[in-house]
TrEMBL record:
It comes from Thermobifida fusca TM51. InterPro entries: GlcNAc_PI_deacetylase-related, LmbE-like_dom_sf. Keywords: Zinc. GO terms for molecular function: hydrolase activity, acting on carbon-nitrogen (but not peptide) bonds, in linear amides. This is PIG-L family deacetylase. Gene3D superfamilies: LmbE-like. The keyword Zinc applies. One of its GO terms (biological process) is glycoside metabolic process. The keyword Heme does not apply.
Length: 237
C-alpha cells in the first residue's frame, strides 16, 4: 500500500528524548518533506548517569538537544508528559491509569485533542521498562471502541531500535517497511548527532554505523536500498 504522507498528522510517542529519532528518524524526514504534520509526545526526561565522558547527562542538556532536533526536523509541536527525576526511568512505577489518561486525553498532544491519523510508539518487547510501559499504556489508550465517540487513528505502528534485539523474546519480524533515501538516512544520523549526550562511537547501538546498517538491512528485506521497519498494529483502509 502507498501512503500519501502529505495528508498525515503523525503522533510519535518517545519514552525519552532520542527514541523518536532512533525509531522514526527516517520516516519523520520523509513525512515532513512531503508536508505532513509531526508531533512528539515525550514521556519523561531527567538527569541520567551514563557512559559519556562526563558520566552524567542533565535534563537541562537534553531539553536543549530536543529544541535543536525539533528545529532540524520542523516538528509541529512537542511536549513532556512526566518530566523530572521522580519519573525518569521509573515509568513502570506510575499507575497505568495516569499514563494512559495522559496519552488518551490529558496531554496537550493527546489522541483526543490532536486526532492524529497515525500513531507510532515503541514496541512492547523492548528491554527498557519505560518503553514497555509506554507501549502498554498506548495499547489501552487505543482500545477498540465506537469511532463516533473516541478517535481511532487509522494507522498504528510500533517502531524498533537495534537494542531491542537483546531480549530472548524479541519482537517477531517486522511487517511494515518505510522506504528511505540515502538523504533521509543521513538526516536521521545527523539528528542523532544533535543528541550529543546520547550518540556514541561504534560499536554501540546508537552509533552511525549501527543506524546505517539497520537501515540497509531493513531495506534489503523490502528490496530497496534503505528502509525503516515497523510492526503494524492497526490499518483501517
Amino acid at each position: 500500500m502507498m501512503i500519501d504522507w502529505s495528508r498525515e498528522r503523525i503522533l510519535i510517542l518517545a519514552p525519552h528524548p532520542d527514541d523518536e529519532t532512533l525509531g522514526c528518524g527516517g520516516l519523520m524526514r520523509k513525512a515532513k518533506d512531503a508536508g505532513a504534520e509531526v508531533y512528539i509526545q515525550f514521556m519523561t526526561v531527567g538527569d541520567t548517569a551514563d557512559n559519556s565522558p562526563k558520566g552524567l547527562s542533565t535534563a537541562e542538556e537534553r531539553y536543549q538537544e530536543v529544541k535543536e532536533v525539533a528545529e532540524f526536523y520542523g516538528w509541529d509541536d512537542w511536549h513532556f508528559a512526566f518530566p523530572g527525576d521522580a519519573y525518569h526511568l521509573k515509568l513502570d512505577a506510575v499507575p497505568r491509569f495516569e499514563l494512559t489518561n495522559a496519552i488518551e486525553r490529558g496531554s496537550p498532544l493527546s489522541i483526543a485533542k490532536l486526532k492524529p491519523t497515525t500513531v507510532i510508539a515503541p514496541h512492547r518487547t523492548s528491554y527498557n521498562q519505560d518503553h514497555q510501559i509506554t507501549a502498554e499504556a498506548l495499547h489501552t489508550a487505543l482500545r477498540p471502541s465506537n469511532t463516533q465517540r473516541r478517535h481511532h487513528p487509522r494507522l498504528v505502528l510500533a517502531y524498533e531500535q537495534a537494542a531491542d534485539q537483546w531480549r530472548y523474546d524479541a519482537a517477531p519480524s517486522p511487517n511494515f517497511f518505510v522506504e528511505l533515501t540515502k538523504e533521509q538516512v543521513d538526516a536521521k544520523i545527523h539528528a542523532m548527532h544533535l543528541y550529543g549526550t546520547q550518540s556514541h562511537d561504534h560499536p554501540h547501538t546508537r552509533s552511525d554505523e549501527t543506524l546505517r546498517s539497520l537501515a540497509t538491512l531493513r531495506g534489503m528485506h523490502a528490496g530497496v536500498p534503505y528502509a525503516e521497519a515497523y510492526h503494524m498494529m492497526r490499518w483501517l483502509a
